[in-house]
Design brief:
Keywords: Repeat. This is Putative tetratricopeptide-like helical domain-containing protein. InterPro entries: PPR_P_subfamily, PPR_rpt, TPR-like_helical_dom_sf. Pfam families: PPR (PF01535), PPR_1 (PF12854), PPR_2 (PF13041). Belongs to the PPR family. P subfamily. This protein is mostly helical. Among the domains are: about 55-70 and about 80-210; about 735-815. Helix content is about 70%, strand content about 0%. The protein contains 44 helices and no strands. Helix 1 packs parallel to helix 3 (about 85-95), helix 10 packs parallel to helix 12 and helix 17 (about 330-345) packs antiparallel against helix 18 (about 350-365).
Length: about 850
């Protein structure tokens, strides 16, 4: 039901508004006669208005005469006519199709003036005049449409909205075409909320608009960056029965392609084809791009073929999208083939295309091809940007081509595109490699070039100093960072904590943790794992286990890495019951053990001489289908070797080779030690030769085991040759090596060489073990040199070493018969 017109909306002070009024101070004398000498116009303003209205109303059936009458009146400066006059004339003109255009012109002139009444007031005047003077006025009369259009033309958008709102209150409706004009004007001026509100009122009153309306609203959403809302408008409008046209489908598909729902884009595209519409190249391009983003290359390629069959040629955007898809799948050859194809077809790649294929080459380690493309791009006059250079520098560094990376970096500096991100990439690599001096030089260069370091820059430097154990410099970088006004992140604190833990300084690490909490930084899982792992590495696994329980109470959910750190810590400390308890907690908590978990347990069990339990773990791991790595094989092989079960050790060694793994230094050394323990030095020597043939480096433990075995056999010359070879390779003997050498020399009564070896150890400030002195004392006792034996005994005491039972028996009771070497339990 229509609402009644309220006279209260017409204040008396606004009753008469003039068309193009003049200032009162410049009013001319009373106007002359308008129509004829016999029809004078009253001199008062009210009488003038009444006379004009009556005269216009007498021409209701003759709109041209009415308009001519107003024009004549306007020719006399003294004649005034207000909103009622305009309203009456509009109603007269709109009553006849041939004068509707003149009505629109009149309304445009009136609205463009500066003194007209507010939109709601003028709308009420139109209604009041229609009621008083008997004009037919439907709820969808053209006057409302023309009025909205006039406000928009006059750039009075706010007034157009006010007019629309008043029309809604009175249940009056303009034509959809004119409502669309208002919506378009709002969207063009980025007045999205106003447009959304106006459209909502239309829909509430059953005026859903047409395709053009929906087009405007969807474009508004896309302009505002809300594609999901655009798709929602489309879906709801179709639900209300609006039949979408091809253009609307284009917009809808474009909107959906900007959301994660690429499947819906395919559905809409299919509907277009079913309706007989041929999608535009732009539409195909959007859907192909969306499929590529979703990793659906099968559909993307199908659509490319469909697009070509519809007469649309592949443009650079489509080709580049497909290249990105190939690159995401790691199909570098396919991406390069497509790149070559578009070149042959005459398409000229742009910077984005080059960046795509260059980035893919770098990711796949094909730096030669990447640099070729980079060179070709520059030859075509396309200057590189920071993204392309970043790809190349990262690729060169990943392939450890430092010289090429440095050359390209200097080129980027010359081009002026070396930004802080490029510097950070280089800094990160140098610091990871422990090349902190080079990183510091690069930092100084960055500062000279006016590039301001950010938090990531400082994180890299802190990480670098932590890696080389220079915690003072790491802390200085942290302090400088805060002094520059850069706020340390949780990652910054975590790096510093990790550095202190790696250097065995748990107390400072916890101080950093407290500072982080004081700074209102919430520890992440990464941070907590650093704390747990750090404590385990400094031998405080029990503390780490207790701390984990506190973190669990605060809602922390531990992962496999957390449990592995504690299990590894307990295993290393020989607390296997505790390690197994944590393993059970881990399984009960739904965390699946990994090969690292089992390897830590097997290692610990083997070292604790619990080989049977270690084998149970080994079989459990295989039963669960966990793929074993070299470290896992090394752990169980070492266990068998310590058990002197070389048959089982050989079988596992063969199995390791059969599954395609390559034994490392640790595996070979375990096997060599095992064969030495069973006095099979021929097998040990063969394994050593195989190591050399396969290029596997021997470490000090490997050489010590071989030297020990040869000395036990009495082959002093071969042992001496092997020792010389070890030194020539730059491998420094450790305390175990010297213990083996001195013991072997003493057994062969090479006491002078043994003495010189001990002196060399002293010069290197290596503290000799009790076993070394015992071997020397036994040797001199056998030679009858009791004075030297007692001197060595005194020297041993001076160094704080406590003689063992063997030494005491020799010196007190003279019991040395049968003692030819160190006790088996003390041998290396």
């Amino acid at each position: 039901m229509k609402s009644h017109f309220h006279s209260s909306l017409l204040p008396s002070l606004r009753r008469f508004y003039l068309l193009n009024p003049k200032p009162l101070s410049s009013q001319p004398p009373p106007p002359p006669q308008i129509h004829s000498p016999a029809n004078p116009i009253p001199q008062s303003s009210d009488s003038t208005q009444t006379h004009l209205l009556n005269t216009l109303l007498s021409h209701k059936t003759d709109p041209s005469s009415a308009l001519d009458l107003l024009k004549r009146a306007e020719a006399h400066p003294g004649v005034v006519h207000g909103a009622d006059t305009v309203a009456v004339l509009l109603h007269i003109l709109l009553g006849f199709p041939e004068t509707r255009g003149r009505a629109k012109t009149l309304l445009n002139r009136y609205v463009s003036g500066d003194s007209g009444p507010p939109p709601a007031v003028f709308l009420d005047r139109l209604l009041d005049c229609a009621k008083r003077f008997g004009f037919d006025l439907d709820s969808d009369s053209l006057v409302f449409s023309y009025l909205l259009n006039s406000y928009v033309r006059a750039n009075r958008i706010g007034d157009a909205v006010d007019c629309f709102n008043r029309m809604v209150e009175l249940e009056l409706y303009a034509g959809v075409e004119y409502m669309n004009i208002v919506l378009t004007a709002l969207v063009r001026r980025n007045m999205f909320e106003e447009a959304r509100e106006l459209y909502g009122k239309m829909v509430e009153r059953g005026v859903g608009g047409d395709c053009a309306t929906l087009h405007v609203m969807m474009r508004a959403c896309l302009k505002e960056g809300k594609p999901e809302e655009a798709e929602e408008y489309f879906r709801k409008a179709r639900g209300r029965g609006i039949a979408a046209d091809a253009a609307l489908y284009d917009v809808a598909i474009g909107a959906v392609c900007k959301t994660p729902e690429s499947r819906l884009a395919l559905v809409l595209l299919g509907e277009m084809r079913e309706m007989g519409w041929v999608p535009s190249g732009r539409t195909y391009t959007s859907v192909i791009g969306a499929c590529v983003k979703q990793g659906n290359m099968v559909e993307a390629l199908r659509l490319k073929d469909e697009m070509v069959s519809c007469g649309e040629s592949i443009d650079l955007v489509v080709a580049t999208s497909l290249m990105k898809g190939y690159c995401a799948q790691g199909k570098l050859d396919a991406a390069l083939d497509l790149f070559n194809m578009i070149m042959q077809d005459g398409l000229i790649p742009n910077r984005i295309t080059y960046a795509t294929v260059i980035g893919c080459c770098c990711k796949n380690g094909n730096m030669e091809r990447a640099y070729e493309l980079y060179t070709k791009m520059k030859q075509m006059g396309i200057l590189p940007d920071e993204f392309i250079v970043n790809h190349l520098v990262r690729g060169f560094l990943k392939c450890r081509l430092l010289e090429d990376a440095s050359k390209l970096f200097d080129e980027a500096v010359d081009y002026g595109i070396a930004n802080v991100f490029l510097y950070n990439n280089f800094l990160a690599w140098l610091c990871r490699e422990g090349k902190v001096s080079e990183a510091r030089s690069l930092w100084d260069k960055m500062m000279r070039n006016g590039v301001i370091p950010n938090a990531v820059s400082y994180n890299n430097m802190i990480h670098g100093y932590c890696r080389i154990g220079d915690m003072d410099c790491a802390n200085n970088e942290f302090l400088e960072m805060t002094q520059r006004g850069l706020e340390p992140t949780v990652f910054t604190y975590s790096i510093l904590m990790n550095g202190y833990f790696r250097n065995g300084n748990a107390e400072r690490a916890f101080n950093v943790f407290d500072d982080m909490v004081d700074a209102k930084k919430i520890p992440t899982g990464y941070t907590i794992n650093i704390v747990i792992d750090g404590l385990c590495k400094v031998g405080q696994t029990t503390v780490a286990s207790d701390l984990l329980k506190k973190f669990l109470e605060k809602g922390f959910i531990p992962g496999c890495m957390t449990y592995n750190s504690i299990i590894h810590g307990f295993s290393r400390e020989g607390a296997m019951n505790s390690a197994l308890n944590v393993y059970r907690e881990m399984c009960e908590g739904g965390v699946t053990p990994t090969v690292i978990t089992y390897t830590s347990l097997i290692n610990g069990l083997c070292k604790s001489n619990k080989i049977d339990l270690a084998l149970e773990m080994w079989h459990e791991m295989k039963t669960k289908g966990i793929k074993m790595d070299v470290t896992a094989y090394s752990a169980i092989i070492d266990g068998f070797c310590k058990r002197r079960d070389m048959k089982s050790a050989r079988e596992l060694f063969s199995e390791l080779l059969e599954v395609g793994l390559s034994p490392n230094t640790g595996v070979y050394t375990s096997m060599i030690c095992g064969f030495r323990n069973v006095n099979d030095m021929e097998a040990a020597i063969e394994l050593h030769k195989k190591m050399i043939t396969e290029g596997i480096p021997c470490d000090v433990k490997t050489y010590t085991a071989l030297i020990n075995g040869l000395l036990r056999k009495g082959d002093l010359q071969s042992a001496s040759d092997l020792y010389s070879k070890m030194l020539s390779k730059g491998i420094t003997p450790d305390i175990n090596t010297y213990t083996v050498l001195i013991n072997g020399l003493c057994c062969k009564r090479q006491l002078e060489k043994a003495r010189k070896t001990l002196e060399y150890m002293n010069r290197r400030r290596m503290t000799a073990r009790v076993h070394i002195y015992t071997a020397l004392i036994v040797g001199h006792f056998k030679e009858g040199n009791l004075q030297e034996s007692f001197r060595l005994h005194d020297e041993m005491l001076d160094k704080g070493l406590i003689p063992d039972d063997i030494t005491c028996d020799i010196l007190i009771n003279g019991k040395f018969k049968g003692i030819s070497a160190l006790p088996r339990t003390s041998r290396v």
